[in-house]
Design a protein that fits this description.
Oligomer: heterodimer
Number of helices of chain A: 0
Strand content of chain A: over 45%
Largest sheet of chain A: 7 strands, mixed
Largest interface: A-B, 29 and 28 residues
Structural class of chain B: mainly beta
Helix content of chain B: under 10%
Order of helices and strands of chain A: EEEEEEEEEEE
Structural class of chain A: mainly beta
Radius of gyration of chain A: 13 Å
Number of strands of chain A: 11
Radius of gyration of chain B: 13 Å
Chain lengths: ~120, ~110
């Protein structure tokens, strides 16, 4: 079974803190994704990566950065957390191919609250 | 850049009934995927249907795709309380390295 794990299920941070969200997949997938999910807005893509050290901006990259030093790990970084970044964050991975070509496997999500 | 739009936004049915959800999209696609999300959890892939396919089945799930109308439907037969979840369609268009674009989902409640 494909497994995508995220470092925390729930996280509470203060405004201005630097926040790291970690995602690890165990299926040797080339592609990895970070989404945020908000009520009424659905899933929105923040960043994705199709190879180590590669990254592509999604729809809403502002205020975020990513790091992919190893194939199985994709980190989302909030450089200076703000209250409007309170959200559910979902990580996903998929096989090699164009980014949307194959099914994506999702982690359980991290519910981040910034106070 | 939302492409797929699910309809209805919410659906409530009795256990044993069939549930139908629809997804409409705007531009040509190469595949369309359906995902399920249980409350507060990650998404689970259900079915992928390619643009040259019209219908696919998986257990109690039946997906149709009508590219001329730019729409898809997901039918869940003989629904169970455990089917209570949000259902999302996502579209893929071959154009460079574009990712999946998700709709906002249909919230299905199955009442026992």
């Amino acid at each position: 079974d494909v497994k995508v794990t995220q470092s925390s299920r729930y996280l509470v941070k203060r405004t201005g803190e630097k926040v790291f969200l970690e995602c690890v997949q165990d299926m040797d997938h080339e592609n990895m994704f970070w989404y945020r999910q908000d009520p009424g807005l659905g899933l929105r893509l923040i960043y994705f990566s199709y190879d180590v050290k590669m990254k592509e901006k999604g729809d809403i990259p502002e205020g975020y950065s990513v790091s992919r030093e190893k194939k199985e790990r994709f980190s989302l970084i909030l450089e200076s957390a703000s209250t409007n970044q309170t959200s559910m964050y979902l990580c996903a991975s998929s096989f090699r191919g164009l980014a949307g070509q194959y099914e994506q496997y999702f982690g359980p999500g991290t519910r981040l609250t910034v106070t | 850049s939302q492409q797929g739009e699910e309809d209805p936004q919410a659906l409530s049915i009795q256990e044993g009934e069939n549930a139908t959800m629809n997804c409409s999209y705007k531009t040509s696609i190469n595949n369309l995927q359906w995902y399920r999300q249980n409350s507060g959890r990650g998404l689970v892939h259900l079915i992928l249907i390619r643009s040259n396919e019209r219908e696919k089945h998986s257990g109690r799930l039946r997906v149709t795709l009508d590219t001329s109308k730019k729409s898809s439907s997901l039918l869940i037969t003989a629904s169970r309380a455990a089917d209570t979840a949000s259902y999302f369609c996502a579209t893929f268009t071959y154009s460079g390295n574009t990712p999946l674009v998700f709709g906002k989902g249909t919230r299905l409640s199955v009442i026992a």
